[in-house]
Amino acid sequence: MNASLKPTAAGSPRIVAVMPAYNAASTLERTLADIPAESVQEVILVDDCSTDNTVELARNLGLTVIPHEKNTGYGGNQKTCYREALKRDADVIVMIHPDYQYDSRVIPLAAQLIHLGICDCILGSRIRSRKEALAGGMPRYKYIANRILTTIENVGLGQNLGDFHSGFRAYRRDVLETIPFERNSDDFVFDSQFLVQTVHFGFKLGDIPVPVRYFDEASSINWHRSVKYGLQTLQAVACYWTSKLKLYRPRYLKPRDNPPAP
Predict the structure, then answer these.
(1) Shortest CA distance to 17 belongs to which of 33, 40, 48, 51?
(2) Is the pLDDT reported for residue 141 higher than 60?
(3) pLDDT tens readout for residues 18-28
(4) What separation, in Å, do the N-terminal and C-terminal C-alpha atoms of the chain show?
(5) How many CB atoms are closer than 10 A to CB 236?
(6) 168-172 and 92-96 beta bridge pairing
């Protein structure tokens, strides 16, 4: 059992961290080591058919491990993460990549902002300043693309977030019970669709600065997939407006019919 796990005190929220994993054996232990002691009650790792020993290592570290029988993609992995967290009665769900790119020391801060009702969804912003982001190793083209997309999303969705494309996120349970995230793409655009859904269904978004690290083992998508992701993100914002204007509403912006399947 990881040292950061602790039974929930009476009246305290049950905080569950979820990790969508693929070949994370070289970075998983470092990510866990940074989670402040006693800040979460359970860590769930969903493995998307890794070819290294991620599953064995995660089990040895005392995590709850859910291995996929076939690769489902980044979005498909998150769907399993969130279903499993809801099944385990999580009040606050924190999603962090196990690739040691995001600083997991900020988990208690994000969870507290959720618990206090200040926000329903918290993102970790990698862009506190341009100098800091680039010094952390963010490729310049990704920084520029992030700034352009984030500006469009802030204007289009009426928000004021520093980074719409962060892999560190925390949610109130109600968000996952309300949003039909199962209808989202199984690809990387899952994240963009999810944030469009949070705005569409009336939840409050906020962010906190989170240090980020770029290095060889940290996960990343190539140029071709980045372009595809960017175009699909713009499409998701456009769908928010076609729905708002009652012109066209994609299925993922329609209310769910039933609670999330166990």
Answers:
(1) 40
(2) yes
(3) 999 999 999 99
(4) 24
(5) 26
(6) antiparallel
**Domains within the chain, CATH numbers bracketed:** 15-247 (3.90.550.10)
Q: How far apart, in whole angstroms, are the C-alpha atoms of residue 52 and residue 195?
A: 31
What pLDDT score was predicted for residue 219? 59
Q: How far apart are CA 44 and CA 208, in angstroms?
A: 23
β partners of residue 65: 45
> What element of type H or E holds 65?
strand 64-67
Query: What is the rounded distance in angstroms from the CA atom of residue 186 to the CA atom of residue 194?
Result: 12
Residue 106: closest CA among 137, 85, 74, 128:
128
- Strand residues in 100-203 grouped as ranges (E): 121-125, 168-172
Instruction: Decide: 92 and 171 in contact? Cβ < 8 Å.
Output: yes
Tens of pLDDT, residues 76-119: 999 999 999 999 999 999 999 999 999 999 999 999 999 999 99
Residue 20, burial from CB neighbour count under 10 angstroms (0-12, 13-18, 19+) = buried
Both tokens of residue 95? 């999603």
Alpha-carbon span 140 to 146, nearest angstrom: 10
DSSP structure class, residue 27: T
Give the pair of three-digit tokens for residue 79.
């769907």
Q: What integer best gives the mean pLDDT of the chain?
A: 92
Residues 6+ away with beta carbon under 8 Å from 231: none
Supply the pLDDT for residue 1.
Answer: 32
- Nearest residue to 100 (alpha-carbon basis) of 20, 191, 34, 22: 34
